[in-house]
Amino acid sequence: MAFRNLTAETMATISERWLDPERDREILAKLSVLAPLLPLIEERHQALISGQHIGSAMKAEIETVRTKQQTLDVKHDRKIRGTHYMLTGLAELADDADQAAAFLDLRDRLLPEGRSATNRSYVDQAGDALRLPGRLDESDRKQLDQVPTPWGNLGNEVDAWTEAATEIGQLEEQRIELERNADSDAVTPAQARQAMNNWIRIARAVENNLDVAPGATDEIRDRILGPLYRAEERADRKRAAGDDNDPDPPDDPTGNGPS
Question: The pTM is what?
Answer without folding.
Answer: 0.55
